[in-house]
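Archive record:
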Amino acid sequence: MIIPWQRYADDHARTVDTMTAAVLFAAFLCGSEIAMPRSAQPNAALPTIVLAAVACGTLLLWQHTRPRTTVAVTACCVAGASAVGHLITPLLLGPTMLALYRVAVTARRRTTRRCYLATVALVVPAALVLDPVDHPWVMKTISPAVWLLFPVVTGSLVRLQRRYVEAVQARAEYAERGREEEARHRVVEERVRIARELHDVVAHHLALANAQAGTAAHLARTHPDQVQRILDDLAGTTASALRELKATVGLLRQAEEGDAPLAPSPGLGQLSELTETCASAGLDVQVALEGTPRPLSPGVDLTAYRIVQEALTNVTKHSAARTAQVRLKFGRDRLTITVTDDGTAVPFDAADSRGFGLIGMRERAQSVGGALQAGHRPEGGFQVTTRLPLYSDTPALRERTP
């Protein structure tokens, strides 16, 4: 918070410095008139004016650019005033106190301490040795040391406060940059996640729709009576694709974040529906289960379903296989999914070199702490093996997925 007089001082620094020098000049002259009771008053008006002018002039010219030189000059003027016979009071010490304050605010603590000790070492011995009036020793030793210590402490506190404010501002800026980086990171993750969902939905359903359309065209020439059933399956496939696509795109239309998903997330419970749609496209899928089935966390369940879906989609798109096998093996703490086919017509890697099928499956497996392997089998066909943890606490499991 900036007080109005601080704002004025920052905007009119030269004017404030001039007014301060004038006030200290007047104070120096007034202080020269102060004397102890029953003490002789020195008759040295001209030297006093010269000393006050030199001290305040140096303060006006060099207090910001040469603060240590200003301390030395003003301290010499105080020592000269003591030699003339003036009593050392805070009014005479005013220019020196301001110079020490400037040093304490701008310089290091060691420099400030040295300037203070040098000033005391100059003023106190001069007052003890050169004082012609013989003022009390307390007024020549302890009093100057205490008054000169005051601006040093005050300036040091101001310097520490400024550093604290700068540190707080730096931490705030760092935190703001961190929040911006985190926000950008979350945006990128969200875009990748939605892109992966769109790929899985569009690629799977369009591959099935393409296969069903081809089957319908073939049956129209050979078995016209079976075309209607294939067309009904095709309509169901496209309707399902539209529903899932609408739910996924709906994420982009949300104005605020929410914890509830837009639609129930698919899982291995819908595996039978997936195999039925593949059967309508001419791919016979056999599902085998090993071990005791156990409930999966939502993220693992969705990941397992999407990997099986993408693997079967790739079989439909890139293979001449007529059958595929899906094996689910429940272990003690992991679920192993193996999808194999008997097709050998098109090399999978070459057909999918520019796609994102394998990349998406690996990303999904890694997002829940699992791993995926894929490749051709020696006996023919292609195999995708995925190992997923039964339970996982990774952040990816808590993402909102349609």
